[in-house]
From TrEMBL:
This is Homoserine kinase. Keywords: Amino-acid biosynthesis, ATP-binding, Cytoplasm, Kinase, Nucleotide-binding, Threonine biosynthesis, Transferase. SUPFAM superfamilies: GHMP Kinase, C-terminal domain, Ribosomal protein S5 domain 2-like. It is an enzyme of class 2 (transferase). Belongs to the GHMP kinase family. Homoserine kinase subfamily. One of its GO terms (cellular component) is cytoplasm. One of its GO terms (biological process) is threonine biosynthetic process. Catalyzes the ATP-dependent phosphorylation of L-homoserine to L-homoserine phosphate. It comes from Thalassotalea litorea.
Length: 315
């Protein structure tokens, strides 16, 4: 029997929590914005097939795909537990553009590891799986950050905690909000977008960062939308990354004039996210971004809300 797992797109950082905060999103029109991985048993050796709209952006050799590495590390972990295993064939439906700021590699990693765990009768706990997901993401981006894999796996708004047993805790999000996600259609490598950041920050920046994150989290717990939105500011990455995103500053100004509550870079970009609590306003912002932010035919704009489910089995 074939098992199929879907893993959703996510907003890394959510502006205030560089590497520490992430949120899973789902389009309100019901489309699947994320990757799907199917798994079944096979003979001889492990296999990876690839399909889907963004398959041409993946490495040609399946062995260079992060999903193949997921199979290898998962089976190695099974061996270390003394558990025998059979060979598997995975099929990756690559629905997410690569280098998009939507947690594309995280979608593949999470869908693959959840599918493997399901196929092999759940040998690993949620925390063990999340640790493996972080390890895989670090291999791709060059540094360990869970802000895509954790929300993609667990759903909702997730805050990373410095505790190996837990790794991530869910924070109450704003279920009334719409997140307009505009992928411009250009590729920004996460690794490269990390290299433009300074090694050190000054005291005023450190204080502003701490205040924004703390105030935002406090507002989430009190469901105080105005306070949350007035502090949704990125003082660590956005000042250095916005120059990599053609049209970002102009569109940011444009959506503010249309009444957006806040906006920022999703992950390392080029996707920008815009927050509003009004459906009609979300539609106006969607049209504006379609007309002004897209740089290539590969671009798209979705109106999303928080995805509270995370990775899940699909038919
Ligand atoms: N299944 C996969 N999904 C996405 N990227 C993959 C996958 N397998 C290998 N890669 C490689 O990993 C890198 C991902 O780039 P990155 O900028 O981190 O993307 P994203 O930010 O969208 O996750 C690319 O070089 C890509 O070729
Ligand atoms: N915290 C990371 C998030 C990267 O997200 P991605 O979707 O661009 O992979 C960072 O900002 O570097």
């Amino acid at each position: 029997m074939t098992i199929k797992v879907f893993a959703p797109a996510s907003i890394g950082n959510v502006s205030v929590g560089f590497d520490l905060l992430g949120m899973a999103v789902q389009p309100v029109n019901g489309e699947l914005l994320g990757d799907v991985v199917a798994i079944e048993g096979c003979d001889g050796s492990n296999q990876l097939a690839m399909e889907g709209p963004f398959v041409d952006k993946l490495p040609n050799d399946p062995k260079d795909n992060i999903v193949f590495t997921c199979i290898e590390i998962f089976q190695q972990a099974l061996s270390e537990k003394g558990q025998e295993f059979d060979w598997v064939k995975l099929t990756l439906e690559k629905r997410m553009p690569v280098g998009s700021g939507l947690g594309s590699s995280a979608c593949s990693i999470v869908a693959a590891l959840v599918a493997l765990n399901q196929y092999y009768q759940k040998p690993f706990s949620e925390a063990q799986l999340l640790a493996m997901m972080g390890q895989m993401e670090a291999q791709i981006s060059g540094s360990l950050h869970y802000d895509n894999v954790a929300p993609c796996f667990l759903g909702g708004l997730q805050l990373m905690v410095n505790d190996k047993q837990i790794i991530s805790r869910e924070i109450p999000s704003f279920s009334q909000c719409y997140f307009v996600m505009a992928y411009s259609g250009i590729n920004v490598s996460t690794k490269a977008a990390r290299e433009v950041l300074p090694e050190q920050y000054d005291k005023a920046t450190a204080i502003a960062f701490g205040q924004n994150l703390a105030t935002f989290i406090d507002a989430c717990y009190r469901q105080d939308l105005p306070q949350a939105m007035s502090h949704l500011k990125d003082v660590l990455a956005e000042p250095y990354r916005s120059g990599l995103l053609p049209g970002f500053d102009v569109c940011r100004q444009g959506v503010a004039e249309l009444g957006a509550l806040a906006s920022g870079i999703s992950g390392s970009g080029p996707t920008m996210f815009v927050v509003t609590d009004d459906k009609e306003n979300a539609e106006q912002i969607q049209t504006f971004l379609q007309e002004n932010y897209l740089q290539s035919p590969a671009g798209f704009v979705y109106i999303c809300q928080t995805d509270v489910h995370g990775a899940r089995l699909v038919c």
